[in-house]
Amino acid sequence: MPVPSALYVFPRSKRGEMVACLREVVAFRAAAQEASHVNEVPPGSDFLDEGTVRPSDSWISDTSYWVPRHLVESAWLEHAPFAFWLVDAIRPAAIAELGTHNGFSYFVFCETIVRLGLPTRTFALDSWQGDDQAGFYGADVYENVSTINKTDYSAFSTLLRGYFDDSLDSIPDGSIDLLHIDGRHGYDDVRHDFEAWRPKLSDRGVVIFHDIAEHQEGFGVWQFWEELAVQFPSFAFDHGHGLGVLAVGSRVPPRLRAFFDAGVENADQIKEFYLGRGRAVAKEYRVSVQAAEVPALQAEVSALRSELQNAGLRVEEKEREIALHESERLGLVDQVNSLHHSTSWRLTRPLRLASDLVHRRRD
Ligand SMILES: C[S@@+](CC[C@H](N)C(=O)[O-])C[C@H]1O[C@@H](n2cnc3c(N)ncnc32)[C@H](O)[C@@H]1O
């Protein structure tokens, strides 16, 4: 018995969606598997002692291959490999960051300290309200950062919530070896942040500036960077919106000096290497976002599967009903046929004709 085709339309289309979902789940699993190998470092590269500089190691170390533990949305993702290298290279006594938001760059610094066992203190400064360039956001952002900080880094890390300048008195002059400036990105903003915080730097002080390659309306870090880069030893990365590295102190850490020296000859190679490593980190972030979607997709797949099963059951039920009706219909047809062929039916035919005639006349 043919079943009305409309009954099949729903389950067939859902079947296509379900297959697509299953394919995605398989692809995510494969990507997650691949991701679990990324923290492996190439063999044979060991750490350098402070002051020992081998030219071939002047801009790459094991840390350049690390993948951050806390992957969150950030325009800074592609700078993690260089940041790992930098903290390893200069081994700062204290780090301050102006502009932390979700904590991506800040937790890269913190992670390096833990993994290398450094005695570094760190300070994250932010209003944790956002601004017109980064966008304004809710209290949950600070709460997430604070939870990670308490759980993983509370031994050495302090979050200073408020405007940058309000914390100037909390940090002693000459105490910071690494300052990251990533607040508002207008020329006046970045210039103000640099000038206000410069006294906090030690004589080994290094400053990194994010967004030096960003030229969109309202961004002026590039302009301030052009002024600074001719006054101090420096190196500029173009990828990831640009990152400027500036040695402001009179005593440039030896491995950083070697890096700057290598940068004179090998700038393209260095940029290309850290661009590649940065892209690998950004890819890890995308994979982690997709992997986080897997449980929801799996739930959707099993909901679709049971919907499909129910639809199948309903189709079977309808088929049974239709078969029953058909057999009832055929039974009635048989009864009618046998009635038509019966002797009594034939004998009573004149009576039926007469009755029809009477009815027609009355009408
Ligand atoms: C671009 S985000 C920082 C991004 C972060 N470094 C990362 O790794 O993704 C800029 C942050 O600076 C903060 N900010 C900007 N100006 C500030 C100021 N004067 N005082 C405190 N926070 C400020 C904003 O709240 C925002 O969270």
Automatic annotation (TrEMBL):
Q: For this UniProt entry, what's an example GO CC term? A: plasma membrane
| Coiled-coil annotated spans | 301-335
Tell me the InterPro entries matching this sequence.
Answer: SAM-dependent_MTases_sf (IPR029063)
Q: Which UniProt keywords apply?
A: Coiled coil, Methyltransferase, Transferase
Superkingdom to which the source organism belongs: Bacteria
Citing just one GO molecular function, the answer is: methyltransferase activity
Name a biological process GO annotation: DIM/DIP cell wall layer assembly
Q: Which Gene3D superfamilies match?
A: Vaccinia Virus protein VP39
Q: Which PANTHER family match?
A: RHAMNOSYL O-METHYLTRANSFERASE
Name by which UniProt lists this protein: Class I SAM-dependent methyltransferase
Q: What is the organism field in this record?
A: Cryobacterium mannosilyticum
